[in-house]
Design brief:
By secondary structure, the chain is an alpha+beta fold. The protein has a seven-stranded mixed beta sheet with strand order 1-10-11-12-13-9-8. The chain has a six-stranded antiparallel beta sheet with strand order 3-4-5-6-2-7, with no helix packed on it. The N and C termini lie far apart (about 35 Å).
Length: about 200
């Protein structure tokens, strides 16, 4: 689902992002609830990036000045009662505006018709975009991996059979945060898994 947001774009750079678990629901510009794996997952677009609420977990990646949020890590993991959670983040820097524009257009096109994806376009630049999507049957892990492209055209992280097994035991989601000012796209991948 594409949402054209009527709010100023608050993030200017990828290095302004913070990461927090356990925050209460923040004011959202758009919310998409999706049923998956026996859970209601809320994909939430914030003025400062995203929040996902899934079962016992709240994940926030956003510019959060004045909070105890930590800088965006490359990876993080924790356990919750009955669940394990893993998070990774990478940043792709594109060499020019044309390459950056193609990457953002590719993300938007692949997610456009999905009922389990939410894309927010901010005013001021057609490439100021934040997108969230659940991993799952509508677009398998390999197709989502194709969206996580480094500027050199190589996939940032390939899907494996083990990840697909993990996906079936729980839920997963990905996000993309595009920064036209710096031609950066921050890509995150999260898994919430019931241990077997």
């Amino acid at each position: 689902m594409l949402t054209v947001l009527d709010t100023p774009y608050q993030d200017a750079r990828a290095d302004g992002l913070s990461y927090a678990l356990g925050l209460p629901p923040l004011d959202a510009l758009a919310v998409l609830p999706v049923e998956r794996g026996g859970l209601t997952v809320q994909l939430r677009l914030l003025g400062a990036s995203h929040q996902v609420i899934a079962g016992p977990l709240s994940e926030t990646v956003a510019c959060l000045p004045g909070t105890d949020a930590e800088p965006l890590p490359g990876s993080a993991a924790t356990t919750l009662p009955g669940w394990s959670y893993a998070f990774t983040a990478t940043t792709a820097v594109h060499p020019d505006d044309a390459a950056f524009g193609r990457a953002v257009e590719g993300i938007c096109a692949r997610l456009a018709d999905r009922g389990d994806a939410l894309t927010g376009a901010f005013p001021g630049s057609r490439y100021a975009v934040t997108a969230l999507a659940l991993d799952g049957a509508a677009l398998d892990g390999a197709a989502l991996d194709a969206l996580d492209m480094r500027p050199d055209g190589a996939a940032a992280g390939g899907g494996t059979g083990a990840e697909n097994t993990e996906q079936r035991a729980g839920i997963g989601w990905r996000t993309w945060h595009a920064y036209p000012q710096t031609r950066e796209i921050v890509m995150t991948r999260s898994r919430l898994v019931r241990p077997t």
